[in-house]
Each structure stands twice: as C-alpha cells, then as structure tokens.
Specification:
Helix content is 68%, strand content 0%. It contains 13 helices and no strands.
Length: 265
Amino acid sequence: MTDRQEDADRRHRFSAGAGFEDAYEGFDLDPPELAVDPDRVDPVDSRVLTDLLDDEQLATGDVDDHELLEVALGYMQINRYEQATDAFERLARFTDDPAIAQEAWVNKGVAHAELEEYDEAIGAHREALRISREADEETGEYDRASPEHTATAHTNLAYALWEFGETNEALEHAERAIEVDERFAEGWYNRAFFLADRGLAEEALHCIDNAIRLGLRNALVIEEKARILEELGEYDEADTLAEEANEMRERAEQRLVDERNQLPE
C-alpha cells in the first residue's frame, strides 16, 4: 500500500459547515415574496432552486436568505452535491448579509469536497475568508463575533489544500482555525491530523486530547489518537483505543441496521 493510499484510509475529518451540526436550528419563516411552501418542495427536483432564484426575475431584496439556505441544505442532506453547489453560490450572490454569504461559501466548499472537487472547494473557502477579512477591516471583531463560520472555513480550506498536496499551507490554516475559536473541537482534531502527518506526534497528541476534551469523541478521532500513540511507542494504550474505535463502529453500524429494520416496507 502506498503512502497516499494509507492517507486515503486515514481520512481527515472534514467539518460540515455551520448548517449541518445538531445544534443548527431551522428557520420557520414564511416569505410572501417567494410564496413557496417548504413542506411541498421536493429537494430532489433540481428545478426548484432555478425557479426560486431566477436571476432575471428576482432582485436581491425579493429573496429570503433563510428560506433559500434551508433548501440548499436540503440538497446536502440527500447527497445532491452538484445542486447544492449551485444553490449555495446563488444564495451567496443574492444575500446582502455578509454572515449568510460566508456560510453559503463555506457550505459550497463542503459540497465541492464531497465531490472531490478540491480546487473548487479551495476557491469557495477562500471566498468565505475574504468576506471575513473585509468585515474585519470594517469592525475589527468579525472573526471573534462569528467564529463558527470563519473557523470552519479555515479548517475546511486546510483539508482541501491537504488533498491538493499543499501540506504546508494546510497546516497554517488548521492553526488559524484554532486561533479564531480555541473551543472548536474539529479544528483541534484537524491540527492533530496535520501534525501527525508531519511526524510531530507529541504535539499531535496534545491537540487530539483537546478535541476529545471539547466533546469530539467518535471512532475516527479515537483511531487517530491510537495511531499517534503508536508513533510514540505507547503500544498498549494504542491497542486499547483501536479496539474501542472498532466497537464504536460496530455499534454505529448496528444502529443503522436497526433503523432500517424499523422503516415501513
């Protein structure tokens, strides 16, 4: 197995953007401008976003940002990533709110990465960070006021750069994510990943422990910690964690089987 193949098996965690966490709360706005009932919109229909966002018929003020964000996120949730990239770009172009535009670009980058279009993902995340820099120049506090979008943009840009072979710049953005939001657990995990990739196992262990302390504990994270401990010669603890990660995966797989069995035929 080549080093690159091993890296592919040891997947870097890709933060899914502010719209995809459990803490995300949907909006229940009913915009009269669009006159669309979201309960009747099938996100599988790729015509929906085109109908909602006809560039020639709708002005910026006619579009409800949050309604469109819901539809765009719907595409992501059913793995329609190509439609999602179009939806998020349209949202970013129509909105007057820099924070929503930034979130749209971040999620567009996520969708491109799911399609393994890393060049486009890099561009989307750079655009999200450009919005952050412009707002920062105006207020001086944008990164601190909206850390969820900026930190996510940095960490996802780091991932895309790593996939693109730009490992040095990837580590820089992984570190920047932590500077923006020191309680961003995925950022600590990603920094650990990149440090371990460069053979800096002791620093990587400190970072991954921070991620776990901040609540990021799943099979992927535990496996990465096991690999780091193995690099440090802590074989017994590494084996224990590897077994724990396997058990976590088995429980997750069993939950999926149980959920499928409960679905009506």
